[in-house]
């Protein structure tokens, strides 16, 4: 095993920040970059931020495509570590993209609003992380404002998410009016000081020994005593710190701070880097692939088309799993079953993208994609052909018939829709017996239809007609004996819509589980799958 590879792997931390919209993910990301020296004045990401209304956001992203991409993968160095932050869109209709992004990380930072605690989107994202045993670090944000009692937040994590927490620091102050935090490791107290820059620059902090007179002077007696009591309680009755448990996602180190005022951010970053795991192995058809394996391997977790509409380019984002990546290297593309050359690889440094020559496990590289890559594809050394396992596919729940308004534009329509399908945000079906002038498109959320409509217009100049279909469940079908399911062989096919996926596999769309029950009861030899079965 080469020393260089081992050294580079150890240095890397690849993670995503997950949160319910508005908890402060964007602000925290920006502050991490600020401390990492990757940006000098906070506000640069924030001002381009996209949230509020998701479709208009998307259009905004469209306008600033380069920026949205660079901010979806950010790399910077801090204290000898190389940090890769993967952004996850906040809107729930984008969650499929988010889930996929989580496949590419080694840990996650969960941001909670101190006043709101665990919210709906937090729960969903947490579930994906915990199912995969991704280590989770919790940052309780907005400590500069009134918030829930820290002990209640710990209970909430345990009762709502089912994870125990270990507070690394502890808020000082009573009734949700916080004055600062106590660091359980250094046993020092850091108090908020007036901040003249409104959080734009890294903050000077005032730190006091726990038993110092200065601290006692700064805090009223009741607050000081309450702090001492809390510390005793935590030390005596709290969970022990256990890095093993953190690594399995069974215990979450919990930090309190305020991203906006930079309070507790640097300390969080340093502790996080100390405790978070370096790049993890991944499971493949040939068993576990360790990052230290000299043979290169990676998988595609995100595809984004037409980053620059003028050039019609597409980027496939790969996460490197093992070995060293080198520009122009030749690798085996497992799904296409052929060798390809990785030219023009790009990496994303704060707000710039640049061509890179080398990269290591944990890194994210953007590859120009002439239309050959699909989500979940494996790239590996030609001498060791395998596929990474376990890439999630999400069952579509919304369906619409889509066709070009102007039949003369059919060619662009087909091209556009196929390319957007490859990005993975929509799934494409063809109704059995129908002509090719229309498609059935399946998505996880309705927002994707707006995005589809918008993008076909802006990138391919095609207006589409979209008719929502009354189905909410899709099932891939096959008979137990391997016989192909056809519209005539299936009893009750007319109770839903019989379609084929883009690989020609039969799928039935029905309105609900009840309708599905009828199909199952009346076709005893039929096997149904919520996602495409492996072929
Ligand atoms: P998100 O990416 O998770 O959606 O959240 P974002 O960072 O955009 O933060 C949501 C709102 O919360 C923003 O306010 C942001 O300024 C505020 N915020 C973030 N961290 C803190 C904090 O530590 N303390 C306090 N008090 N507020 C915080 P906004 O009014 O929606 O936007 P803006 O006017 O600040 O741009």
From TrEMBL:
<dbReference type="GO" id="GO:0016150">
    <property type="term" value="F:translation release factor activity, codon nonspecific"/>
</dbReference>
<dbReference type="InterPro" id="IPR004548">
    <property type="entry name" value="PrfC"/>
</dbReference>
<dbReference type="GO" id="GO:0005525">
    <property type="term" value="F:GTP binding"/>
</dbReference>
<dbReference type="InterPro" id="IPR038467">
    <property type="entry name" value="RF3_dom_3_sf"/>
</dbReference>
<dbReference type="InterPro" id="IPR005225">
    <property type="entry name" value="Small_GTP-bd"/>
</dbReference>
<dbReference type="Pfam" id="PF16658">
    <property type="entry name" value="RF3_C"/>
</dbReference>
<dbReference type="GO" id="GO:0006449">
    <property type="term" value="P:regulation of translational termination"/>
</dbReference>
<dbReference type="GO" id="GO:0016149">
    <property type="term" value="F:translation release factor activity, codon specific"/>
</dbReference>
<dbReference type="Pfam" id="PF00009">
    <property type="entry name" value="GTP_EFTU"/>
</dbReference>
<feature type="binding site">
    <location>
        <begin position="141"/>
        <end position="144"/>
    </location>
    <ligand>
        <name>GTP</name>
    </ligand>
</feature>
<feature type="domain" description="Tr-type G">
    <location>
        <begin position="10"/>
        <end position="280"/>
    </location>
</feature>
<dbReference type="InterPro" id="IPR000795">
    <property type="entry name" value="T_Tr_GTP-bd_dom"/>
</dbReference>
<feature type="binding site">
    <location>
        <begin position="87"/>
        <end position="91"/>
    </location>
    <ligand>
        <name>GTP</name>
    </ligand>
</feature>
<dbReference type="Pfam" id="PF22042">
    <property type="entry name" value="EF-G_D2"/>
</dbReference>
<dbReference type="InterPro" id="IPR031157">
    <property type="entry name" value="G_TR_CS"/>
</dbReference>
<keyword id="KW-0547">Nucleotide-binding</keyword>
<dbReference type="GO" id="GO:0003924">
    <property type="term" value="F:GTPase activity"/>
</dbReference>
<dbReference type="InterPro" id="IPR009000">
    <property type="entry name" value="Transl_B-barrel_sf"/>
</dbReference>
<dbReference type="InterPro" id="IPR035647">
    <property type="entry name" value="EFG_III/V"/>
</dbReference>
<keyword id="KW-0963">Cytoplasm</keyword>
<feature type="binding site">
    <location>
        <begin position="19"/>
        <end position="26"/>
    </location>
    <ligand>
        <name>GTP</name>
    </ligand>
</feature>
<keyword id="KW-0648">Protein biosynthesis</keyword>
<dbReference type="InterPro" id="IPR032090">
    <property type="entry name" value="RF3_C"/>
</dbReference>
<dbReference type="InterPro" id="IPR027417">
    <property type="entry name" value="P-loop_NTPase"/>
</dbReference>
<comment type="similarity">
    <text>Belongs to the TRAFAC class translation factor GTPase superfamily. Classic translation factor GTPase family. PrfC subfamily.</text>
</comment>
<keyword id="KW-0342">GTP-binding</keyword>
<protein>
    <recommendedName>
        <fullName>Peptide chain release factor 3</fullName>
    </recommendedName>
</protein>
<comment type="function">
    <text>Increases the formation of ribosomal termination complexes and stimulates activities of RF-1 and RF-2. It binds guanine nucleotides and has strong preference for UGA stop codons. It may interact directly with the ribosome. The stimulation of RF-1 and RF-2 is significantly reduced by GTP and GDP, but not by GMP.</text>
</comment>
<dbReference type="GO" id="GO:0005829">
    <property type="term" value="C:cytosol"/>
</dbReference>
<dbReference type="InterPro" id="IPR053905">
    <property type="entry name" value="EF-G-like_DII"/>
</dbReference>
<dbReference type="InterPro" id="IPR041732">
    <property type="entry name" value="RF3_GTP-bd"/>
</dbReference>
């Amino acid at each position: 095993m080469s020393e260089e590879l081992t050294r580079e792997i150890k240095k890397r931390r690849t993670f995503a920040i997950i949160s319910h919209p508005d908890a402060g993910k964007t602000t925290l990301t920006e502050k991490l970059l600020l401390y990492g020296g990757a940006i000098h004045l906070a506000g640069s990401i924030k001002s381009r931020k996209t949230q509020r209304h998701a479709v208009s956001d998307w259009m905004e992203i469209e306008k600033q495509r380069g920026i949205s991409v660079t901010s979806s993968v950010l790399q910077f160095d801090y204290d000898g570590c190389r940090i890769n932050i993967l952004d996850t869109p906040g809107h729930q209709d984008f969650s499929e993209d988010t889930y996929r992004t989580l496949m590419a990380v080694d840990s996650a930072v969960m941001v909670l609003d101190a006043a709101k605690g665990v919210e709906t989107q937090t729960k969903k994202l947490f579930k994906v992380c915990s199912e995969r045993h991704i280590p989770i670090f919790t940052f309780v944000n907005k400590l500069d404002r009134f918030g829930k009692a820290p002990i209640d937040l710990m209970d909430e994590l345990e009762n709502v998410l089912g994870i125990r927490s270990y507070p690394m620091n502890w808020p000082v102050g009573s009734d949700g009016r916080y004055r600062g935090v106590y660091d359980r490791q250094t046993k020092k107290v850091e108090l908020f000081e007036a901040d003249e820059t409104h959080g734009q620059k890294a903050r000077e902090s005032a730190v006091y020994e726990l038993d110092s007179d200065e601290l006692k002077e700064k805090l009223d007696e009741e607050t000081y005593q309450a702090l001492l009591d809390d510390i005793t309680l935590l030390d005596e009755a709290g969970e022990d710190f256990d890095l093993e448990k953190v690594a399995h996602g069974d215990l979450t180190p919990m930090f309190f701070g305020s991203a906006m005022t930079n309070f507790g951010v640097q300390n969080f970053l340093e502790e996080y880097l100390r405790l978070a795991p370096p790049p993890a192995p991944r499971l493949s058809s040939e068993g576990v692939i360790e990052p230290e394996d000299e043979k290169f391997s990676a998988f595609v977790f995100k595809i984004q088309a037409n980053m620059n509409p003028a050039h019609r380019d597409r980027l496939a984002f790969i996460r490197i799993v093992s070995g060293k990546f080198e520009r122009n290297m030749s690798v085996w593309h497992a799904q296409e079953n052929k060798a390809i050359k990785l030219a023009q690889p790009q990496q994303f440094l704060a707000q710039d993208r640049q061509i890179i020559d080398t990269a290591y496990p944990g890194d994210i590289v953007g590859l120009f994609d002439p239309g050959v890559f699909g989500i979940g594809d494996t790239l590996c050394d030609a001498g060791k052909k395998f596929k990474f396992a376990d890439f999630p596919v999400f069952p579509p729940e919304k369906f619409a018939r889509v066709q070009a308004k102007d039949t003369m534009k059919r060619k662009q329509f087909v091209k556009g829709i196929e390319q957007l399908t490859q990005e993975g945000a929509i799934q494409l079906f063809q109704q059995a017996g129908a002509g090719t002038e229309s498609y059935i498109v399946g998505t996880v959320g309705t927002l994707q239809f707006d995005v589809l409509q918008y993008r076909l217009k802006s990138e391919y100049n095609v207006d589409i007609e979209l008719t929502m279909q009354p189905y909410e469940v899709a099932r891939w079908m096959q008979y137990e004996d391997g016989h192909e399911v056809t519209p005539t062989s299936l009893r009750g096919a007319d109770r839903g819509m019989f379609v084929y996926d883009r690989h020609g596999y039969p799928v039935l769309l029905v309105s609900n589980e009840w309708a599905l029950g009828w199909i199952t009861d009346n076709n005893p030899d039929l096997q149904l799958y919520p996602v495409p079965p492996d072929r």
